[in-house]
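Re: [ENG-882] Designed sequences occasionally contain unexpected residues at chain ends

Forwarding the minimal case from QA. C-alpha cells:
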C-alpha cells in the first residue's frame, strides 16, 4: 500500500528516490502496510509540492497558458459532475427508471421502456469529450465540443438529440445555487478558455496520461451503480470534500513555488459559481446567508494571491 503514496510524486522523483522512500517507510513502520494518517498527509503534501516545482521548472509553456489549461479542465469537470450517472447508464444501456437525475419520466433512450419522447444522447457526453480532449492537450477538439455545449444549452426545448430532460434538473456544486446546462456562463467561459488554448500554439499544452481518467470512471461507477444523483446528500458531501482537497492542493502548490498559475482555475470556478448565486439567489440558499456563501467562494482568491507574493518575497530575500 505504501506504493500508492508514491503516485503523489512526479515520475522523475519516483525513479530517483522511490526505493529509498519505500525502504524508509518499511523501516520506520515495520509490519504496517500503511503509515499513520499524519505521515500520509505529510507525504501527500510533499508529493504535491514536488509536482508543483516540476511544473514550474518546465519552461516550455508560459505560466498563464498552463493556468488557463487548468481552468478549462476544472470547468469541464464541473460541467460533467451532475451527469456522471447519466453517462454511465447510457454507456452500459441501463434504464434507471425512477432513479434518473430529476427526469420527469423514463423512456429517454431509444432502448428504454416508457413514454414515446426519447433523446438520442446524454448531454454529459459533451463535457466528457471536452475533458478528455483537454487532458490530451487537443484544444482544437475541445473548442467545438464546448461550442456544442452552448448550442445544446441555448436550444434545449424541443430537441431530440440531447433532449431537455435532465438539463433542466438540479445540479449541485458544493455551495450556492444549482448550475444547469441552460446556464451559459459555465459553457461560455469554458468555450472562451478553449479558444485561447487553441489559438496559442496548442502543441505547447501539457499532455496528461489517460490514467487521469481512472478517478472519473470510478466516480461514474459509484454514481451509476448506486444511483447517487446530484442532489443527494452523499453526492453533495463527496463533492464538497473534493473541492476542499483541490483548494488545499492549490494552496500547497502556490506556497511551494510562488507561482500564480493555480490562481486562474480557482478564480474561474469561483466566478462561474458566484454568477449562479447572483442569478438565482434563492436556490439552495435557505440555510446559508448570502454573505457567508460569497465569502466561502471568494476568500481563496486573495489568500492564494497573498501566498504567492509572500513566497516570491522569501525567494528574493534568500
Amino acid at each position: 500500500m505504501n506504493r500508492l503514496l508514491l503516485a503523489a510524486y512526479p515520475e522523475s522523483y519516483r525513479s530517483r528516490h522511490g526505493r529509498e522512500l519505500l525502504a524508509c517507510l518499511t523501516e520506520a513502520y515495520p509490519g504496517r502496510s500503511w503509515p499513520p494518517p499524519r505521515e500520509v498527509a505529510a507525504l501527500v503534501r510533499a508529493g504535491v509540492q514536488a509536482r508543483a516545482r516540476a511544473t514550474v521548472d518546465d519552461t516550455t509553456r508560459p505560466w498563464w497558458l498552463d493556468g488557463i489549461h487548468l481552468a478549462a479542465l476544472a470547468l469541464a469537470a464541473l460541467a460533467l459532475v451532475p451527469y456522471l450517472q447519466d453517462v454511465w447508464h447510457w454507456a452500459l444501456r441501463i434504464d434507471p427508471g425512477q432513479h434518473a437525475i430529476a427526469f420527469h419520466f423514463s423512456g429517454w433512450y431509444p432502448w428504454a421502456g416508457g413514454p414515446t419522447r426519447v433523446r438520442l444522447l446524454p448531454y454529459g457526453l459533451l463535457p466528457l469529450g471536452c475533458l478528455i480532449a483537454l487532458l490530451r492537450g487537443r484544444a482544437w477538439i475541445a473548442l467545438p465540443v464546448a461550442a456544442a455545449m452552448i448550442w445544446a444549452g441555448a436550444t434545449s426545448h424541443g430537441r431530440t438529440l440531447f433532449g431537455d430532460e435532465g438539463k433542466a434538473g438540479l445540479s449541485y456544486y458544493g455551495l450556492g445555487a444549482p448550475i444547469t446546462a441552460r446556464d451559459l456562463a459555465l459553457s461560455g467561459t469554458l468555450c472562451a478558455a478553449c479558444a485561447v488554448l487553441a489559438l496559442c500554439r496548442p502543441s505547447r499544452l501539457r499532455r496528461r496520461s489517460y490514467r487521469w481518467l481512472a478517478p472519473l470512471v470510478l466516480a461514474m461507477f459509484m454514481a451509476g451503480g448506486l444511483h447517487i444523483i446530484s442532489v443527494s446528500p452523499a453526492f453533495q458531501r463527496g463533492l464538497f470534500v473534493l473541492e476542499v482537497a483541490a483548494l488545499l492542493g492549490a494552496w500547497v502548490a502556490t506556497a511551494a513555488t510562488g507561482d500564480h498559475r493555480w490562481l486562474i482555475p480557482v478564480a474561474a470556478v469561483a466566478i462561474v459559481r458566484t454568477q449562479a448565486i447572483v442569478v438565482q439567489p434563492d436556490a439552495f440558499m435557505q440555510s446559508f446567508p448570502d454573505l457567508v456563501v460569497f465569502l466561502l467562494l471568494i476568500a481563496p482568491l486573495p489568500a492564494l494571491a497573498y501566498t504567492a507574493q509572500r513566497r516570491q518575497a522569501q525567494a528574493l530575500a534568500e
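QA comment: On inspection the terminal residues look reasonable. The two ends are 38 Å apart (CA to CA). Proposing we downgrade this to a documentation issue.
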